[in-house]
Amino acid sequence: MADKRKIKSEASSSSSTIDDCKAESVVVDVGRRRSSCGYCKSGSNTSITHGLWAHSLTVYDYQALLDRGWRRSGCFLYKPEMERTCCPSYTIRLKASDFIPSKEQVRVSKRMQRFLDGSLNNKNSDEQNKISSASSVQKDIKVDNPNGVQSNNIDQKVDYLSEQINSAVLTCIEQGEFSNEIQFPKASVKSVAPNKKKLQAEEAQDLVYTSNISFQIAAALRRVHKNVGEGKDPKFVAEMLSNHLKSPALSIGLSVKACNGHINFYSTETQTKADVTASRPAVSKASCSNNLEKLHLKRQNLEIRLKRSTFDPEEYELYRKYQIKVHNDTPDHVTESSYKRFLIDSPLIFVQSNGDASVPPCGFGSFHQQYLINGKLVAVGVIDILPKCLSSKYLFWDPDLAFLSLGKYSALQEINWVKENQSHCPSLQYYYLGYYIHSCNKMRYKAAYRPSELLCPLRFEWVSFDIAKRLLDKKPYVVLSDFATLENELALLPNTIEDQIEQEDYESNDIRVDGDEEMSEGAFEDSEDDDDDESGGPEATSLMPADLRKDVSNIIIGLRGMHLKYKDIRHAFPPTERNYLESQLDKYVRAVGTDLSERMTYSIG
């Protein structure tokens, strides 16, 4: 059995993970599919992929498929047709032992450590136990005398509000409201003394804290991308951020409003009941107390668990909360069945460790990596552990802890996991981050995990991202392995890789990312087969003469419970059916490669 200290194996009928009693890959070829694109939002069926349904799949075959540009969502496998699809998607990976964390990634680790040891947002850790509840802190805030507040309490609130504004900026980036190509400045919140309250603001007498970060963000947007900054003046930015700050402000007895581009925080203690009711829902003192206690006072205990991919009601509730709050899904869209098909079901055949150096202690297969703080589930990384890599599929996390950048933190933990397990399994060296789409701003964060490589879509060779980027700056689809022949063209391009990669001050939730990365189970339901290639290119196999097709004679055909090579049953099909089947087999071979086509079972009934 796998190491019970690290894996909680839960046999469940809701999971389709298959144990190693049936170690063979059986797939059904869906063929070419067209669907709407979740990245460019084209509005029409411009996303073109080749699809397979997998009844079962060995981890070795899936590793080989990854290295040919495939990806899975539940039991569905898909590969973009790179020359035709609107947003060419390149498989991206990094070698864990070569990983060099950036300054921002180091800051994420340090922020988590400060949170765990109880010092986050506290200037003076020796004084942190003086705050016992939010209500007691609120009593220290005098509307007419903010200077009378104990300096430690002011510092705590200033730091807390600054962190929350930074988290709001990250949320705006995730939701596409701000460009993720820009390195935004960090927020700074200042307390407002009585003699400085001359802003043209409502309830100026109740003004306690303010921030001018909106002016800096608007300037950054205009400076870097004029088109991105269009319409986003300081007033617009302040309004946008204020909408995300209402709950955090209320948790410490404040209200928030945008005023002439400033983000202003007001004491709610002296406002009229009508004003308070209009600006916020009722918040109990106990709720405020719990918020401050959670954020400031306690030493936190972080536990990371690795478990087989099975349904867990607590995970589902966290996923539901994440999808609704972060990705704005409607509650009726986030169903238990869709969750299972997307993130629980897996065709991968589990391989347990026998104590040798070919399999890590946890085994190979599909897993959920749980992150618990003080026993409460706060994040779940959905991953596949394969012979050469940890493949990151999706992450969902508690929106209330956005300030901890759990997307980045979990990625760092997964990279570190690969490093630690290389001693148990030397072949396990890489961290696969899914697809990278150069034309999609939401994908750019993946290149921040360096040094990374992209997979050439034609020859399936790995090419340094630094080289690939300069090619992709010119056009979205490139045969990356041709970079040597394009040396003269590269010399004409500006070498700004370092400058553009250090744009990481935002949350990478979806190394899986970003809500749209993984195909949902419904993404192909309304699409239609498109066997005829209008361009007449090399993929137009339905029109291709038989003598130009790939050799399909050794493909293993699954038919009525029997597994036979096609050459042994070819004669059983009438000429018309034989010609059609061979054209489909030709497409299949081109999509998965000769080796895999002769190793996996092609099921036809």
UniProtKB/TrEMBL annotation:
Biased composition annotated in UniProt, kind: Acidic residues: 515-536
Enzyme Commission number(s) of this protein: 2.3.2.8
Domain N-end rule aminoacyl transferase C-terminal: 314-456
Recorded GO CC terms: cytoplasm
InterPro entries assigned to the protein according to its UniProt record, in alphabetical order: Acyl_CoA_acyltransferase, Arg-tRNA-P_Trfase_1_euk, N-end_Aminoacyl_Trfase, N-end_Aminoacyl_Trfase_C, N-end_Aminoacyl_Trfase_N
Pfam family, one: ATE_C
Enzyme class, spelled out: transferase
UniProt superkingdom: Eukaryota
Region annotated Disordered, chain positions: 118-149, 503-544
GO molecular function annotation: arginyl-tRNA--protein transferase activity
UniProt cross-references to SUPFAM superfamilies, sorted A to Z: Acyl-CoA N-acyltransferases (Nat)
Domain (N-end aminoacyl transferase N-terminal): residue spans on this chain: 35-105
UniProt catalytic activity: an N-terminal L-alpha-aminoacyl-[protein] + L-arginyl-tRNA(Arg) = an N-terminal L-arginyl-L-aminoacyl-[protein] + tRNA(Arg) + H(+)
Keywords linked to the UniProt accession: Acyltransferase, Transferase, Ubl conjugation pathway
PANTHER family on file: ARGININE-TRNA-PROTEIN TRANSFERASE 1 (PTHR21367), ARGINYL-TRNA--PROTEIN TRANSFERASE 1 (PTHR21367:SF1)
Family listed: Belongs to the R-transferase family.
Function, as annotated: Involved in the post-translational conjugation of arginine to the N-terminal aspartate or glutamate of a protein. This arginylation is required for degradation of the protein via the ubiquitin pathway.
Name under which the protein is recorded: Arginyl-tRNA--protein transferase
